[in-house]
Amino acid sequence: MSLSVQERAEYVATFRFIQVFLMETLARWVPPTPEMEVKVLFGRHIWDLAQQADALGRRGYELRAPLQFSLRPAESYVEVLEEFARTNTTPQKIHGFYDVILPGLAARYRNYLERTDRLLDEPTVRVVEKILGEFNRMIGESEALRKELSQLRLTDKDWPAGLAKREASEANIVVRRSSAAVA
Amino acid sequence: MAGMKPEETKQVKGMTLRRDPAREACFKVVDSDAELEEWPGMTEISRRQRIHRHMNNETGAIEIAAQCLVDFPEAPWELRMHLARQCWDESRHVAGLYRRLREIGGYKGEFPISCFEWCVTCSLDTLAARLALQNRTFEAGELDLLGQLPAKWREAGDEKTAEVLESILGDEITHVRFANQWLRVLVREDRRLALKIAMAVRFLSAVTAALAPQDGQLSPVGLPYEEPQNRITQVNVADRKQADFTDSEIDEYLRQSGFQPIMTGNAEG
């Protein structure tokens, strides 16, 4: 069974919540991060994440949700995001965001593409595929910066694995609502 | 100003300001523009110092727009989109200026820097007041400067820097425009914001006066400070119009800037 229209709307609104959260996370990190090149990297990607949230917010409206509507994901996933947003050091911010959180979200987007009807839900498919392509560019830009600035490399090699484990621990992040709560 | 925790503030000459954002250890951060090195003319060191200073100001602009996204999550989504876009634009400005700085032999931390605009703007507790200072005052002032500077760099034989500055000008017009448009909407919806904006402008005047150099004081490069009346930049009427300042707002600004005699011709042009 493919996803119903309401389920699609719930997924899209949940993804939008995450995109806005990640945009705000990078924004929160810009002033206290010392490295100028990293401020530039985050500043570039704040706009990417905002546009992706905006596209999802418009698509949700087409799926009978309010315009620019967000749904809070499962609490355990929100806790992972909130804990990660409190990360202090620049290498952890960079490695955690670009090596764990974005790839983890990309996996959830790909899972959505596998589950939805790619013809009937093609507008969402196109939005999601565009986001996935942009994630690859964003990750590539962070890797290029890490090659340029050796001080951004992580000394604790186990740290990303721990974060990845927590990120993946909640397989289904969408909280089902009554149709009235979505519309 | 209200809303800041003590650990987020700093005291400068009796004024309470937002504490500086983080900078790398290579930078020497000072509290006011008067403490910056300002080399005269368009010598090699002056050119590096100008780009270095501009690069840091653009870094501050990323930080201010980003902090507005954090501090005002309930702002209308369209306005937040403008702020997010501004983060990208200012990031590209920093990268473009840093590239140019390195091309002419400069490097990060070569000169002292000041985060004055951040320290003042991020002391304010409403988005309307921050837009009024950062976008509508500081960035609008940059429109005036950038209206003149490319010609100055070209005269000095530096076409590349002139092109960088012209690209930045185009983006800054957009930032001033969205602030002008949204301030009208926000104030129409909540008239109390007009008072907040007026208080913000007074706060800026008070901080500027407190941090101004004393009579007879020499600048860090050992020269007397230019008199304020000699520092006035020609008002960039055409680009202020592009940025959606009304004719009456431009007239008023020209009057305050001492450009009254040329006001009518330019404002109508």
Secondary-structure map:
The complex is a heterodimer of chains A (183) and B (269).
Chain A: H1 5-29, H2 36-62, H3 75-85, H4 90-115, H5 122-148, H6 159-168, H7 179-182
Chain B: E1 9-12, E2 15-18, E3 29-30, H1 44-71, H2 77-103, E4 113-114, H3 116-121, H4 127-155, H5 159-189, H6 192-211, H7 237-242, H8 247-256, H9 260-268
Parallel strand pairs in B: 3-4
Antiparallel strand pairs in B: 1-2
Helix pairs in contact in B: 1-2, 2-5, 4-5, 4-6, 8-9
Instruction: Let me know the largest β-sheet of chain B.
Output: 2 strands, antiparallel
Arithmetic mean of pLDDT of chain A: 96
CATH class of chain A: Mainly Alpha
Q: How are strands sequenced across the largest beta sheet of chain B?
A: 1-2
Query: Oligomeric state of the chains?
Result: heterodimer
Note the total helix count of chain B.
Answer: 9
State the low-pLDDT regions of chain A, or none. Answer: none
Net shape of chain A:
elongated
What series of H and E elements makes up the topology of chain A? Answer: HHHHHHH
In CATH, the architecture of chain A is Up-down Bundle
Assign the CATH topology of chain A: Ferritin
Structural class of chain A: mainly alpha
Q: β content of chain A, as a range?
A: under 5%
| Helix content, binned percent of chain B | 55-70%
Secondary-structure element series of chain B: EEEHHEHHHHHHH
Key features?
heterodimer; A: 183 residues; mainly alpha; Ferritin; 71% helix; elongated; B: 269 residues; 2 domains; two-stranded antiparallel ribbon; two-stranded parallel sheet; 62% helix; globular
Write up what this structure looks like:
The complex is a heterodimer of chains A (183) and B (269). Chain A is built from 7 helices and no strands. Helices cover 71% and strands 0% of the residues of chain A. With 183 residues, chain A is mainly α. At the A-B interface, helix 1 and helix 2 of A face helix 1 and helix 2 of B.
